[in-house]
Amino acid sequence: MTRKTSARGALVARRAAFQAALLAWYRACRRPLPWRESPSPYRTVVSEFMLQQTQVATVLPYFARWMEALPDFEALAAAPEALVLKLWEGLGYYSRARNLHRLARKVARAGSLPRTAAGWDELPGVGPYTAAAVASIAFGDRAACVDGNVVRILARLSRDGTRFTDGASASRVFAPLAQELVNPADPGDHNQAMMELGATVCVRRRPSCPACPVRGFCACASAGDPEAFPALEARRTERRSVVRVWCERAGAVLLHRNGPGARRLADLHELPTARQAGLDPARVAEGPLIARNIRGITRFRIAESIHSVRRPGARPGPGLVWVRLGDLGSIALSGPHRRWTAQILSAGKGQARGPGGGAPPPARGLTSG
Ligand code: SF4
Q1: Taking Cα atoms as reference points, which of 290, 306, 312 lies closest to residue 360?
Q2: How far apart are CA 270 and CA 369, in angstroms?
Q3: Based on the structure, what is the number of domains in the chain?
Q4: What is the rounded end-to-end Cα distance, in angstroms, of the chain?
Q5: Residue 350 CA, ligand 1 centroid: distance in Å
Q6: 273 CA to middle of ligand 1, Å?
Q7: Nearest CA to 252 among 98, 360, 121?
Q8: Which residues lie across from 308 on neighbouring strands?
Q9: Is the pLDDT of residue 42 over 70?
Q10: Dihedral-angle region of residue 292 (phi above 0 means left; psi in -120 to 50 means alpha; beta otherwise)
Q11: 129 and 155: one domain?
Q12: Which of 110, 136, 284, 354 has a CA that sits 20 to 30 A from residue 11's CA?
């Protein structure tokens, strides 16, 4: 028997004690989060959608605002999409908001909620992790949640040094072990305890092994090398650059409203790229620079520069709209663009001085937003 399988086998053999230690710790030490303190299937679903790729501290104010405006599935199902996107504005990954909206309409039409992970897995925007989380927390279904946190804990507990090219393949490999360890007496709290352990104790760098409730079951704790697990290959980063324009006139700013084909950004407004504004990016990039931002989206590192221009090109692309500065607060702008717009306006950098020259005539083919 290899070291890997023996550590894993020993863990499974002692799973009742493992489950008890984990659950006792969770019930004594868990963070008091609003979706935990007064749980309901709706609150669980909304929190799980918001928490996908987003940290708890970021989600908290959004969750409070959302619950005040849309307290249940029926209210969400009846809400216009503009309100849903507005409440989500700044959380990013807007396809989550749209899918949550579609999910609410679907369950409102059905008149009942699925009670198993397999049933939830069929609904819009629900993958295996969210399905297991909602079904176990809200309905006690014995389904294991497996995400990066859980993979990290399991790889360390079993000191499994298998090399993985990405998180998805690691999740697939550890899913059977996660399922074997689920506490049948309270699968929901067990899953939340694993998430809590990964978020607060068994963290990526410098895990708090001396304070860990399951250190007695952990092969890495005794070997002293938890940070070496899981063995994930470093993700290659791709660099991209985007040239955007700031075009302001007569108290309005030029924005680009993404069409329905833009998937996660559909219907959201952004500062237009040079191409969307019908301008040559190289020429625009030579004009006055008013802001530069670097951000990471999945594996891309994107450098964006925003340049002042006097007017859009003679043949602007579709989706451009003039939005009065006073109306910016009432439209859905994607999070970084909301921030950049506010910074540019508050710094008074937006005066038109760039390519174009002369007084800007009304641009043909553009609409008012
Ligand atoms: Fe993670 Fe350390 Fe706990 Fe093992 S003992 S599960 S490495 S925090």
Answers
A1: 312
A2: 12
A3: 2
A4: 67
A5: 52
A6: 47
A7: 360
A8: 246
A9: yes
A10: beta
A11: yes
A12: 136
